[in-house]
Amino acid sequence: MTSLPAKAGRRCHNAVNPLHSALYFAPDLARELAPYGIEDPSAVYFAGRAAALGRVGPGVVTATFHNFHHALVARHLPAVWELAAPETVLAARLRAADSMLRRLLGEEAVASKEMAEAAELALRAAEGCVRPGRPLYAALADLPVPEAPHLALWHGASLLREHRGDAHVAVLQHAGLDPVEALVSHTASGRGMNPKWALATRGWSRRDWEEAQERLRGRGLLDGDGELTEAGTALRKGLEEETDRLDAAPYEHLGAAGTERLTELCGAFTGAALASGAFPADLFGKD
C-alpha cells in the first residue's frame, strides 16, 4: 500500500459517487419498473437499491439504509418483491443506468477511451474493498461486472459508494447519532440533503425533525437557530475523518496516482452530468 494525500479518498468518492446516485433521481429507473407495477417513488428507490440483497424484508433495509423511517420501508417491503423479483429489478436497474448515462453524458463520452479508463480504475480500487461489516457493498460485490465500460464504471461507483456508506453507518452508530439526528446535523453542516427533501423521502415528520434538533441542542451540538455549534462542527468533521479512515483501503490499493486520475476522470463526467440536470437544483443545502 502507498500513502495517499490527505482526503484523497474522500475527494475521489465525491467525484465518483454522483455517477451512481444520480440513478435514484433520474426518471429512468421508475420508467423501467413501472411495467411491473412499481410506481411509488419510495418503492422504486427501495427496490432498486436493495435488490442486490435479495428478497429481504423491511428490517434489513431499515438497518442497512439507516436514515429511513421503518414504517416507510415496511409500507413497500417485502410487498415489492411480489411485483418484481430482485433479479428482475437488477436487470431493470442496469437498463436504467445505461439510458441515464447515455442521456446525461452523451454517446461520445460513453464510448470514449476515458470512460474505459475510468471503469478500469474504479474496478481496480474496488478490489481493495472488504466484505466483513459491509452488507450493502458485499451484496453488490457478488454481482457480475457488466461488460460495457460505462456500466462497468457505474457498477464500480456503486461498490465504492456502498463500501463507504456501510462504514459511515458504523461511525454514526459509534457517535450516538440516531437516523434523524444524523440527517439534521448533516443538513446543518450545509452539505446534506435539505430538510424539505429529507422529510419528503425519508418518512420522518416535521415533529420528528424538531425533536431531533432538541436532542442535539441538549448535547451542545446545535444552537437555537438550528446551526451547528463549535462542538457540532467538530463532531461532523470527526465523522467524516473516521469514515475516511475506514474507507481508505480501496484508494490505498489503487495508489496515489490512480486515485488522482480516477478523481480527474470522474470529476469531468460528474460535472457533465450535473450540467445536464442529474440532480434537483434544490436538493442540497439548509433551506
From TrEMBL:
Name of the protein in question: SalK
Organism the protein comes from: Streptomyces radiopugnans
Lineage: Bacteria, Bacillati, Actinomycetota, Actinomycetes, Kitasatosporales
